[in-house]
Amino acid sequence: MTEKKNWNELKSGESLVAFFLIRRVETKTTAGGNRYLDIVLGDAGGEITARMWDCKQEDETLYQSNMLVKIKGSIAEWQGKRQVKIDKIRAVVEDDQVDINAFIPVAPYSPEAMYAELLQYLSGMENVKLRETVQLLLTEAGEKLLIHPAAVQNHHALRSGLLYHTLTMLKAGEKLADVYTFLDKDLLYAGIMLHDVAKLDEIDANALGIATEYTVEGQLLGHIVQGIKKIEKAAGKAGLDEETSLLLQHMLLSHHYEPEYGSPKRPMFPEAEILHYLDIIDARMFDMQKALNETEPGNFSDKLWTLNNRRLYKR
Amino acid sequence: MTEKKNWNELKSGESLVAFFLIRRVETKTTAGGNRYLDIVLGDAGGEITARMWDCKQEDETLYQSNMLVKIKGSIAEWQGKRQVKIDKIRAVVEDDQVDINAFIPVAPYSPEAMYAELLQYLSGMENVKLRETVQLLLTEAGEKLLIHPAAVQNHHALRSGLLYHTLTMLKAGEKLADVYTFLDKDLLYAGIMLHDVAKLDEIDANALGIATEYTVEGQLLGHIVQGIKKIEKAAGKAGLDEETSLLLQHMLLSHHYEPEYGSPKRPMFPEAEILHYLDIIDARMFDMQKALNETEPGNFSDKLWTLNNRRLYKR
Amino acid sequence: MTEKKNWNELKSGESLVAFFLIRRVETKTTAGGNRYLDIVLGDAGGEITARMWDCKQEDETLYQSNMLVKIKGSIAEWQGKRQVKIDKIRAVVEDDQVDINAFIPVAPYSPEAMYAELLQYLSGMENVKLRETVQLLLTEAGEKLLIHPAAVQNHHALRSGLLYHTLTMLKAGEKLADVYTFLDKDLLYAGIMLHDVAKLDEIDANALGIATEYTVEGQLLGHIVQGIKKIEKAAGKAGLDEETSLLLQHMLLSHHYEPEYGSPKRPMFPEAEILHYLDIIDARMFDMQKALNETEPGNFSDKLWTLNNRRLYKR
Amino acid sequence: MTEKKNWNELKSGESLVAFFLIRRVETKTTAGGNRYLDIVLGDAGGEITARMWDCKQEDETLYQSNMLVKIKGSIAEWQGKRQVKIDKIRAVVEDDQVDINAFIPVAPYSPEAMYAELLQYLSGMENVKLRETVQLLLTEAGEKLLIHPAAVQNHHALRSGLLYHTLTMLKAGEKLADVYTFLDKDLLYAGIMLHDVAKLDEIDANALGIATEYTVEGQLLGHIVQGIKKIEKAAGKAGLDEETSLLLQHMLLSHHYEPEYGSPKRPMFPEAEILHYLDIIDARMFDMQKALNETEPGNFSDKLWTLNNRRLYKR
Amino acid sequence: MTEKKNWNELKSGESLVAFFLIRRVETKTTAGGNRYLDIVLGDAGGEITARMWDCKQEDETLYQSNMLVKIKGSIAEWQGKRQVKIDKIRAVVEDDQVDINAFIPVAPYSPEAMYAELLQYLSGMENVKLRETVQLLLTEAGEKLLIHPAAVQNHHALRSGLLYHTLTMLKAGEKLADVYTFLDKDLLYAGIMLHDVAKLDEIDANALGIATEYTVEGQLLGHIVQGIKKIEKAAGKAGLDEETSLLLQHMLLSHHYEPEYGSPKRPMFPEAEILHYLDIIDARMFDMQKALNETEPGNFSDKLWTLNNRRLYKR
Amino acid sequence: MTEKKNWNELKSGESLVAFFLIRRVETKTTAGGNRYLDIVLGDAGGEITARMWDCKQEDETLYQSNMLVKIKGSIAEWQGKRQVKIDKIRAVVEDDQVDINAFIPVAPYSPEAMYAELLQYLSGMENVKLRETVQLLLTEAGEKLLIHPAAVQNHHALRSGLLYHTLTMLKAGEKLADVYTFLDKDLLYAGIMLHDVAKLDEIDANALGIATEYTVEGQLLGHIVQGIKKIEKAAGKAGLDEETSLLLQHMLLSHHYEPEYGSPKRPMFPEAEILHYLDIIDARMFDMQKALNETEPGNFSDKLWTLNNRRLYKR
Fold this sequence. Notes:
By secondary structure, chain A is an alpha+beta fold. The first copy, chain A, has helices at about 1-5, 55-60, 110-125, 130-140, 145, 160-180, 185-195, 200, 215-220, 225-240, 240-255, 270-295; strands at about 15-30, 35-45, 45-50, 65-80, 80-90, 205, 210-215. Chain A has a 5-stranded mixed beta barrel. In chain A, strands 6-7 form a two-stranded antiparallel ribbon.
């Protein structure tokens, strides 16, 4: 991948072989009536426009945004800007051993390590039927849980973001339960592990763990209602008592706290209340850390939409 | 029931035999340490305080508010006000043939007639599996649907109020679908018939059809989420296609329209939109007709809490 | 009008004779100091830029946006895009027999048929003086009522939109009054027919029935206050009793329901309440039907500004 | 009126002759079936309950709240509290020469003096037809303007309150126009003089200048819309040009500034903007001065409802 | 203190010697013109009215609400209710060794132990000048910090409530900083220790640690602004660098988060954000635990004003 | 400065010598790798793009936006638009005697005259220590007060805008105090003179009196809190009594009135209330006068962001 470092420095006419993520792609037609692909390619170094002039009909559906590809071509110049003229393009395969971190934002820990840690919390739960309820839903989630993002645009919109977000909340929840000792840890852990699990059904993500769009059910119902229905069924299978099942469903229903953010009911017991705060704190810390990483000391960040347009100060 | 007309006119010392609804009841203790029942009795003619001095322990639990009783006693005077001294009290039985209309607010049509009319609408639905889905939930509702109120305090808080509200919406919905012909009548009817069906689970009502309180599940989840779960199950049993089931669930989810009134999503297709307006129009017409019935022509009603504290004008 | 179908397919250099609506027009100056008209032409097939190089001074004021014209010219190419080089241009005349439907959005029924139907509702009113009050204002509105749009940008912003909106509300109002029989049909019909009549004074529209802008009075007072003043005068002429005139004025004042939408008072009687809901339902149905007509089944529409940025689902 | 100073100190059994304002009055019935008047009397010294046992049928309608009466009777004691036993009662007449200031809140200047000063402002207006428009409406208002209050409960709810409020705004408006010299004084004065003139029609007041209730038209339309209609007519009679009439109507429409306070449009030119601020400043200064007069130095007032529940600090 | 357990069971005429907290006290006058004290006494067992008939002038100012007293007297009965006739009364003295916990709500740990733990956190701070800044303000707070409540009515309105609230936040803050490791612990601890320190100046409390009222400065400026001024001064004395002083002041300014709760700026860096959430979580946990302690399992609490009128569910 | 009038009319190739304000400046790189300055120049006649091809490294930092420069160059044409090719550029010096009014918006009176008038108000204050408090802060402000703007973007964002705004408020305040005579003029004047004084610390402005950006302290605390701290210190030095100092601080704290505009407390005495209204009136009059100056009679202005998107009407 030495090439990748270089494409920013290549001059017009020089050739290029590199891996890229397709960010956007569109089929266009020349004045002469020929169809071609107009692509925006990206990697950690930025973005560049590319054109593939000799494009077969199957290429038009084959190459989609958020797909990893290998490109062979050369640098051209058009209207004063550099672009890539593509000679060859193909999807990346396993053997290419491309490091996905260079192309998309990913969680800072490996999904396998995070999942193992999450299972530690699960196995520590004492309420057997509650644990089984959670277990059933994690099993149902399967592989998707390892790479699914937690959002389309907001906080934790990164590969394995959902798992990373859930695990960090478990850690913080464990800590707060040490201070507020009257909290029921089992109920809190179950609430944390399941609070966003229906995002797997609400948001479509591709094989890279990039959110592509909301599903039809996601738009019509949303992950809160979807999650409640999942818990109802899993609790039934696991034989969980009715009261605990209800409490868990209420925790999902209320965890966005405000009606205008999707919760028709506010939390009605301490574990539901804490679940909300763990969720928002983790989102805020993620967004703040990310914004400050991109800010110079002694300066303010840009206005951040997810933080009510606040500008953050970096010491 | 000639007596009932008279209790307002009886003088101190005169005896009384009459049917009443117990509005409130409390056990108190005299200075001398004896326990007695302090009751507020009511009928169409108003309310009067009553006391039952010789009260057995079982009486304290037997006589509850919103219970119909037969009273034998006499009029006494205490601190300048008339009250009833109860000699005998017993629950009303079938043979008493008491007309319940004289004691509590009831819908203007018999529950049997309304239910028959509702079944007409049901049988007119062409989508077989959608009809079966509705049928399953009506069957599950059973007898309760005949007398259940639609609310604890708000509009249609009357015996058979839920059925009356639903039927009137069906009639108005049928009419609007004649004007806006692109509406899917089957979907609209199903939405109307099921939109409040989970109020049977959200609100406890006694045998008279008077709402007593919210259930635990009603408070933790609410009839919208409860209803969605019911539809999911019934649709599964009836073999309804996934899309229609989703649309119906969305209609429930969105029918309160505003997040702060319990709908996390706003209606996303015309039938859901119309369902909301049919619901609110029927509630408004009910409240307005009720308030104007109690207002003199040329005057304004009192401020009405359910109508943003508006005062209505009676022509 | 065979030509019209073709302009999209014409190649550079080919000649063109066609009818168009001028969408936007601007006078510009060449580097050489010559003035020319830069026009955007449109019809049902889309839009194309046109230039009229030899332009007389009178042309600059003669050709305005939203005007129907006949064009003779040819296709040219500029910066890779096709445009029309205009040789001759003139306003469309009666003899051209141009079908206006091909150029602007129009109501689905003829204005004459709709007006006849509206008069049916009017003649059915039993309160003679109330009917005369409405009659006076319809007469005053005259021809403008036949083609006036109901809005500049929102719902029913189409030729004859005001009449179409009013008539549909009358139909729906008639239906609801069959269900809620305590409503005074005469008052309701009068309210519907007059609720937006002052939009004729609030919004300027051209001869095609396209809204051009708000009038000065429209901006300073708005159609609600303007309408109240009109009713006050007409009711005086017709000898309508003071109470009914007041009720009608209140219906106008309150029909937007919320202060922030222009109603300082909320409806204080059932006919005023229903008027509001008929208005909003008709607006919503119009907007939803329009958006769904442009959406593929199984998909969501774009975000709709008039519907709180909702995206609609098309079955 | 030496008696008036004394009734607070009279002992049970002592006789009393005094003038009072009837604050509340109700007809009640004794256990023995006799009807009597239960009255609350008041003057600057406070309130006391009174009973008139031998009451004729005409007395029940004759004596109303907010009426000045002369009382002859004696002090009695009932349930530990002093009350007045009325022997004779009659309405106050001119010859009694009662000083109304001792019974109700009045403006600090005589209505005649204030009206004369207002006419000074009127006569200083240079726009003849605008002056005539205002003149017509002042003439129409007639005597009522001298004593009418400006509100039922809020600021300037005192005898001649409307006149006092209007005059103070004229004074302040004159001053601000000296600083912001681009303001049109004529338009500003006209706006001030007419901004609340329709309160004469919105609020019923009795002969003492005490607001009793809102009129039917006041409730259905409100003084803003009522005032606009009055201006439209008066401007027509006076031959005022259409633009100035519109501006004046807009000033009324917008002077409450916020939709939720009754103004569907916000001010669209400086005179309308200033009118609003003069209005609110005068209301605030009145309420604050009144509250601080009742507060000890170094302390806070009670929470003031008209000032967003603020408590004021008295130096 | 065996007597204290008994006063609820004492009969009319029996004598009583006991310690009480004066909850409310008022001087009244008998019909005969004698002045007496009308007192409400309270302890852990409830409240009882008491009267001290022979009351000297100095007693009227000596005995105030929220004062601990020793009472000698007897039980009397008046209008069917028991009350205490006081023969002797005196303020509690050290030697009485009264346990204050029986009379007012207190924090669950001793102030000395909590203060020692707080000093542990202080001494662990590495930024010397920041530590000195905090130290200066704690020293200035002095003894008051040991018993001061955190509120007049809301959460932690108990003796030593301010200290208890601060310490719990320190514990939770320490925990969260273990999860979100990029947080600056020194800055966070300083923010926690000082965030409410100006409540000592905002709220007056008596020697028992019961809040009595807001101070004049508290009402005019509030503890946020007061606290900022204190930090500015202390930071100056301690020689703290300008940037850190500013950050600390900003943490105070923003810790209520929403403008309507008193923070004109929202948090602009992570430590300020976390400070807010630690504050609100501790308040919520306190209020919830308190409410649930008073609720039966399987039931809902009353509506809680401090929790948006939510009713909590007790498992 | 005859040249300045001409640059709009110069043709391609003609040479140019003129003074300009640099509005925006950016360093760019040619395809050939040479760095050049891309500048937007402006004066009262409008804006024109300029390029300085031979640019030394020091030029890149020397020439900043909002700097006055003298340009020598010629008109070139690029992509159909005229631009300036710069041959020589230098900062304006005193000897150039450039009239700044032609380049930036300035207050309509000279800063010296306005300052003298402000001192008149100051010397008229009777409360000696209050006057000294104000004096201290004015002295501390020094020269900056003469030219500082009152805002970055909003009202009075002009050279000497802060002084102009303050003086106009003093004039209007003096007038209103003549009408509302219970106002304390000294306190009011002090509040006016100091209400925005900390904008000198909140907003950075360059030597021309153009606001460049908010300071770090300005963003973290804001001019309200900054001003309170300044008053606290100055009052201490001047020996002002605690109560008056508090009142003055409260006036600053509350002068934005609404929490969402930065005031956590609303005004609690009349002088604070009036201060707010004087501030908002002066802002509104400024914005309205400015917008109407740019509007043709009989027309509406554009939507004005600072006036809730209102469009103003120009008579």
